[in-house]
Write a structure and sequence with these properties.
heterodimer, A: 384 residues, Butyryl-Coa Dehydrogenase, subunit A, domain 1, Butyryl-CoA Dehydrogenase, subunit A, domain 2, Butyryl-CoA Dehydrogenase, subunit A, domain 3, 3 domains, 50% helix, B: 257 residues, Rossmann fold, nine-stranded mixed beta sheet, two-stranded antiparallel ribbon, globular
């Protein structure tokens, strides 16, 4: 067993951290308050090959895997500047296109995703089918040489930044089970017939969520990804990477919050000694530190399993669960450590809390992970 | 054009440093990083070498340490020479210069770049000693460097502004932090750095006598080290209508304006 990180991974982490630190927490907080994506940071990391680190090298990417992409997600967040679209464009879309895209689709999209120029987001959730993919109601019907999409998608991240979306739609029904047959389509973000409406949220996040209305959107047949009706398995090839990078982002947020809190607790004096000397302040930070480190270990395991082509569902879910909880505990403890300053705009912790809180809900909720673990890890009866 | 850049690998300035109680020199055990001040020389070298030339790094380091050199290789340098030898322990600036000069002789450079001084030692004397040992001219404190017609043209930072200096090549130039903006290594650069050649040499490989370097050859000895005086309370300027003049006077004394 080897826990020492190779020199090139250390260099990768240090470089991403250095680039993202130039932007940092204040920059993130400002963008989160204004619902403005951190485009400059994305471009800079893209130019250096970090956004497309998991794109195959024959398509101009780094040729790395989830281990490397998770390092990028963690280090940007640890610099105070988490990038949510790494989970979507770099994790789901790149992984799905690389594995299931046609030669033409890979050649068209991956080189520009490698440089960070093009973002491809992911549309699966619906008003009546959140985590239940079997209930997806958006349909795609082959009419001549085009598929026609009809339906609604809900809570789709970053459509305003994207050139295209991978849309999950129903193309049939399994006769035996009555469950939906799903297919994936690459749809231009400005496709005629697709209308979008921003969903107002009170959480401060740079990325915007959208509701999408597909009103007879015509998609050329060559925009089908992989095989028609094979979408269910294909989707899952992208969802584990999303959870792994989500976990890495959570670990990074936790590290950043604890660093800020420890800096503050070492310096802030109220009764003649640093507040960090009091266990009531120190213990929540120490506890969160333990949780962040444990989450980092499970994240590393999940990324490694995925890269080895081994089953990574359990580890990805557990990593995402642990990291979201650890990030929230860390941010919460950091805010409490700062006292009144924890809520002040000068310290930028509340926008970070929004991100940590989101991670308990998305990309998969804490409760759905517990359902998974109960059923698949413990062999308990399915509860839903 | 072939450019040699002298680089130093130093203990991470972010971590608390320690002095060896016997030699009073900085403890250099463990991981070392590329001195930030050398990143400017590496970047300048890469820009001047262009596609037709290449940058070779030359470094002296304890314990065959190469992690800092790998950072510069990831930025785009082609190869490196790292000299490590137990005999080099206790080297002063001149010993270091002897080693670097011998290593540079093996490469054959059109231009040698170095930082004006290192961030850990701050002697600021090694680069010009290297030039002297190689019999080359040197230009220090460059804030701009261009090359044409076999000559290097330098804007040399001074207290009053800058001098325009021209110097035939080969020569050695020390560069300030303002000379260029160093690039970050790309992911491809980081991965490529793994397989770039790093020539690990000893004092004997360079043809140097061990007694002429390290503690044995040092002409400089640190006899004692004392803690710096605690910072005073500072002057408080109370504005009685002339505060602006007194502040300007204060800044003038410090040669800041």
């Amino acid at each position: 067993m080897e826990f020492a990180e190779p020199a090139e991974h250390r260099a990768l982490r240090e470089t991403v951290r250095a680039v993202a630190s130039r932007f940092g927490g204040a920059h993130y907080a400002e963008h989160a308050r204004q619902s403005a994506p951190q485009e400059e940071l994305w471009r800079e990391l893209g130019k250096l090959g970090f956004i497309g680190i998991n794109v195959p090298s024959e398509h101009g990417g780094g040729g790395g895997g989830l281990v490397e992409l998770a390092a990028v997600a963690e280090e940007t967040a640890a610099a105070g500047a988490p990038l949510l679209l790494l989970l979507v464009s770099s994790a789901i879309s790149v992984e799905v296109l690389t594995r299931y895209g046609t030669v033409e689709q890979r050649a068209e999209w991956l080189p520009r995703m490698a440089t960070g120029e093009a973002k491809v987001v992911f549309a699966i959730t619906e008003p009546d089918a959140g985590s239940n993919s079997h209930r997806i109601a958006t349909t795609a019907t082959l009419e001549g040489d085009t598929y026609v999409l009809r339906g609604t998608k809900y809570y789709i991240t970053g459509v305003d930044e994207a050139e295209a979306l991978i849309v999950v739609a129903r193309t049939g029904v399994e006769e035996a089970s009555g469950q939906a047959k799903l297919s994936l389509f690459l749809v231009d973000a400005d496709a005629p017939g697709m209308r979008r409406s921003a969903i107002e949220v009170d959480a401060m996040l740079p990325e915007t969520q959208f509701e999408l209305f597909f009103d007879e959107v015509h998609v050329p047949a060559d925009r089908l990804i992989g095989e028609q009706d094979g979408g269910f398995a294909q989707v899952f090839h992208g969802l584990n990477p999303e959870r792994i990078t989500g976990a890495a982002l959570g670990v990074g947020v936790g590290r950043y919050a604890l660093e800020r809190a420890a800096d503050y607790a070492r310096v802030r004096q109220v009764w003649g000694q640093p507040i960090g000397a009091h266990q009531a302040v120190a213990h929540p930070l120490a506890k969160a530190k333990v949780e962040v480190e444990l989450a980092a270990l499970m994240t590393a395991k999940a990324a490694w399993l995925h890269d080895q082509g081994l089953p990574a569902g359990e580890a990805s879910n557990m990593a995402k669960y642990a990291a979201a909880e650890a990030a929230l505990a860390a941010v919460e403890a950091a805010i409490q450590t700062h006292g009144g300053n924890g809520l002040s705009s000068d310290y930028g912790l509340v926008p970070l809390w929004s991100m940590a809180r989101l991670m308990r809900i998305a990309p998969i909720s804490r409760e759905m992970i517990l359902n998974y673990v109960a059923q698949h890890s413990l062999g308990l009866p399915r509860s839903y | 054009m072939n450019v040699v850049v002298c680089v130093k690998q130093i203990p991470d300035p972010a971590a608390p440093g320690a002095l060896d109680p016997q030699s009073h020199t900085l403890v250099r055990e463990g991981k070392l990083i590329l001195d930030d001040s050398d990143a400017y020389g590496v970047e300048m070298g890469l820009q001047l070498a262009g596609d037709a030339g290449e940058v070779t790094l030359v470094s002296m380091a304890p314990n065959q340490e190469v992690s800092g050199v790998r950072t510069a290789l990831a930025m785009g340098a082609a190869k490196a020479i790292v000299v490590s030898d137990p005999a080099l322990k206790g080297s002063d600036a001149l010993s270091t210069a002897k080693v670097l000069a011998k290593a540079i002789e093996r490469v054959g450079a059109d231009l040698i770049l170095a930082a004006t001084e290192s961030t850990d030692g701050y002697t600021g004397t090694t680069p010009v000693q290297v030039a002297e040992l190689l019999g080359l001219p040197s230009v220090t404190f460059a804030k701009k460097v261009t090359v044409s017609d076999g000559k290097v043209r330098v804007e040399r930072q001074t207290e009053a502004g800058f001098d325009e200096v021209e110097c035939p090549m080969p020569c050695l130039v020390t560069v300030t932090a303002g000379v260029v903006e160093p690039r970050y290594p790309s992911f491809k650069g980081i991965m490529a750095a793994k397989s770039k050649p790093v020539d690990q040499l000893t004092v004997a490989d360079l043809g140097l006598d061990a007694s002429s370097v390290g503690a044995a050859g040092a002409r400089q000895e640190i006899t004692s080290v004392a803690a710096a005086e605690a910072r005073g309370g500072g002057d408080i300027v109370v504005d009685e209508g002339d505060a602006h003049e007194r502040i300007v006077q204060f800044l003038e004394q410090l040669k800041l304006v």
